[in-house]
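Title: Comparing notes on inverse folding

I've been comparing how different people in this forum approach sequence design from structure. To keep things fair, I'm posting one structure and asking everyone to reply with a full sequence. Here's the target:
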């Protein structure tokens, strides 16, 4: 079954598909899972929990499976953003600050505030809670990368600063792992702050850009290694893997996104074969 996953986006639930991957077989994992209480993509198995700490625990069940399949010299990059308790501050936005996805936040049924951790205007610190939980699972956190977005989506609020960044955590499972600092320097990817624009892909409005992912692949994997994205979305990680001469595996629960990603992958392969897009390194 594992060989049937190679260089494909498989439509299905990640929590089930991950169990079919052998121990220590994946060289690199790069993913951005659904965030708590944000967009509705369809067929969600993550992100629509009523309590934010339920989301943390569900994320930690994924990361535990990923630790099992991650190669001893491998790396795991987790891109994840934070949210505010309640409406996230978006459903109250009007005019130029309104969003097409406002209703997604309004439709999310969450627990009532408790006046402590759960209270309105509270930034929930979910990325940090997940990262600490992963450390308890035995992961080693090597970097907390800041992805600064020069073109962030509107997030207006009159009583706080505008959020313009997300975390990308770099985890490993052993003290000896593959990392090429010289390539990182050559790519200007050796510092822990990246300033890269958001690039949505067609109807998937929360995809991360290929330019963000390619340097991560080039610095922490080797040619023909396997790169896994268990929340593939529009297939950006797979496209970046093709462009860097790596194999890939992608899982995605949304059938429409599966079709979109596989079409995008086919077009990328054709462009590379026709030398319209260069493979790197």
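Reply #1:
Here's my take.
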């Amino acid at each position: 079954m594992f060989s049937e996953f190679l260089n494909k986006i498989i439509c299905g639930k990640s929590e089930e598909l991950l169990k079919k991957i052998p121990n220590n077989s994946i060289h690199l994992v790069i993913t951005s899972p659904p965030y708590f209480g944000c967009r509705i993509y369809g067929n969600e198995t993550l992100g629509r929990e009523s309590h934010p700490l339920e989301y943390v625990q569900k994320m930690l069940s994924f990361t535990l499976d990923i630790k099992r399949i991650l190669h001893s010299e491998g790396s795991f990059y987790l891109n994840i953003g934070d949210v505010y308790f309640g409406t996230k501050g978006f459903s109250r936005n009007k005019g130029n600050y309104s969003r097409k996805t406002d209703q997604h936040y309004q439709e999310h049924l969450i627990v009532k505030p408790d006046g402590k951790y759960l209270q309105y205007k509270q930034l929930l610190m979910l990325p940090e809670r997940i990262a600490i939980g992963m450390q308890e699972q035995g992961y080693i956190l090597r970097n907390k990368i800041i992805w600064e977005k020069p073109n962030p989506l509107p997030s207006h609020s009159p009583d706080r600063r505008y959020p313009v960044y997300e975390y990308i955590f770099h985890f490993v499972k052993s003290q000896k792992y593959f990392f090429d600092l010289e390539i990182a320097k050559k790519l200007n990817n050796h510092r822990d702050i990246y300033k890269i624009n958001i690039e949505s892909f067609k109807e998937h409005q929360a995809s991360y850009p290929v330019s963000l992912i390619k340097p991560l692949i080039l610095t922490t994997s080797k040619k023909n290694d396997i790169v896994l994205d268990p929340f593939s979305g529009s297939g950006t990680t797979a496209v970046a893997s093709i462009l860097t001469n790596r194999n890939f595996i992608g899982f995605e629960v949304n059938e429409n996104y599966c079709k979109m990603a596989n079409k995008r992958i086919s077009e990328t392969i054709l462009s590379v074969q026709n030398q319209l897009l260069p493979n790197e390194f």
